[in-house]
Amino acid sequence: MAQRIVVDPITRIEGHLRVEAEIKDGKIVDAFSSGTMVRGIEIILKGRDPRDAWAFTERVCGVCTTVHALASVRSVENALGINIPQNAELVRNLMFAAQYMQDHVVHFYHLHALDWVDVVSALGADPKATSELAQSISNWPKSSPGYFSDLQKRLTKFVETGQLGIFANGYWGHKAYKLPAEVNLIGVAHYLEALEWQKEIVKIHTIFGGKNPHPNYLVGGVPCSFNLDNNNAINAERLALVGKLLEDAQTFIEQVYIPDLMAIAPFYLDWGGIGGGLSNYLAYGDLPTNGFADVDSFKFPRGIILNRNLNEVVPVDATDPDQIQEQIAHSWYDYEGSDSKHPWEGETKLNYTGPEPPYDHLNVDDKYSWLKTPRWKGQAMEVGPLSRMLVGYASGKEEFQEVVHWALKTLNVPVDALFSTLGRTAARGLETKLMAGWAMEFYDSLISNLKNGNTSTFTREKWEPSTWPAMAKGVGLSEAPRGALAHWIVIEDGKIGNYQLVVPSTWNASPRDKSGQRSAYEESLIGTPIEDPENPLEILRTIHSFDPCIACAVHLYDEKGTYVHQVKTF
């Protein structure tokens, strides 16, 4: 008989997620993913000025902010036929790249690495041996024996207090941890260094967008101006700072993130055969270099991989109602006339029919999530870094193939290892390495334009509602750090008539569809070995490999102000 365990909430994610899993003979045989909070941004937007939509959608999340603003302004520009200046495209790309680099580094060190790195084990490391190991894998200057010794002493005092603070709620000492103490100490050291570094890279958002988080955007371009010699605009000094921040980011990624990733992975190669889940992968593509209409110019190509076939990339059209639809068979919503609709026809009618809290488990035979269930031609899709890397690889893009082949050769694993929890984690690091190089390309192009006298960042074409048609529809596509993102808008008489977001974690974390097909989270957990049902570290490893962003960075506290984290076994 299967044993049902509940992990609620999943910690170290953005938002609130519940996972129920059935375990038999030490492995997961069934799983259910439930988003247990609702945003309602679509409801808030109805009737508002479409030029303001970005400011609301950006606040869906406190982490993946700028990419929602980007998708939003693109949806309006698509609806109205607005083409933005090249400098605006480059600035948007730079802000996009900055978010990616910060987000992926934060995810690896502060959300996901602790599934592999045992913090408490680092207390037993030999600082001299740690230094020798660190210097053997990277030229990062902070690798002296004294550096690791001092860190270890501080960590020991921290642990001895009995209050682990940022390292609380971990499964320290779990049998599934395999790293030597010295590698664990390196991981802890770089965890702390990454905390400092990530504060710097987002200054790019402040320079171009006025602030972080939630930088400013603008339909028709970007809200910043350039004058190399004027302090009232983005001048040479501020641009030099952007260049320095990008150089520092590339150094950190290549000398810290990637070496750590490749140092940890060999101890967990068995996870190259765990957590694969679905066999279909979707990417909308992003980072245009010749306008958003020229899909072939994208750094991230667009397409779909079906049945893990890397010999073919299938095209995707987000405007085709026969391709992308959202179902609500197991979601707490109501639709009129159908339980499956294209987002332009989508509705956001909340209707909670789940159990009254507190409850032991959800009624998974009925509706059990606040997430809708998107499908491409009726098929479940995985989105995210792995999807982007696979589409790039299968598209024959040299940069993608080069980094993928390097990683496979370094780890001595076959290409099939990509379809796994480990592959998903590695893909995120590899695309961060690519992003660091692309960011420098965008920066150099921007500087070249400015030196040649091209300072345009905005077009007033079709800014005034009097120039708009009575009705218009548009879609804004992007690749959020967590995967394919789309905002669909319907403009009626100058106001928002309908607005629907389908975010990456809706694709990945959604409940079953009307045919009973699992989505990516649920499918990826099938077959996962569980060492200790009371401490299901393995569930966190696979779920974290997707980097969930369920709604926004909300944490759960009880009436006494105590952080809630519980694992129940039935």
Overall description:
- This protein is an alpha+beta fold and 570 residues long.
- It has one domain (3-569): Orthogonal Bundle (Cytochrome-c3 Hydrogenase, chain B), CATH 1.10.645.10.
- Helices cover 37% and strands 13% of the residues.
- A hairpin with a 2-residue loop joins strand 12 (483-492) and strand 13.
- Mean pLDDT is 93; it is low at 552-570.
Q: Can you tell me the CATH class?
A: Mainly Alpha
From the spread of the alpha carbons, the general shape counts as globular
Q: How many distinct beta strands?
A: 14
Largest sheet: 4 strands, antiparallel
Task: Give the helices and strands as they follow along the chain.
Answer: EEEHHHHHHHHHEEEEEEEHHHEEEHHHE
In CATH terms, the superfamily is Cytochrome-c3 Hydrogenase, chain B
Q: Domain count, please report it.
A: 1
Give the spatial strand order of the biggest sheet: 3-2-1-14
CATH topology name: Cytochrome-c3 Hydrogenase, chain B
CATH architectural designation: Orthogonal Bundle
Q: Briefly note the structural class of the backbone.
A: alpha+beta
Report a brief summary of the structure.
The protein has 570 residues and is α+β, with helices and mostly antiparallel strands. The chain has a single domain (3-569), classed as Orthogonal Bundle (Cytochrome-c3 Hydrogenase, chain B).
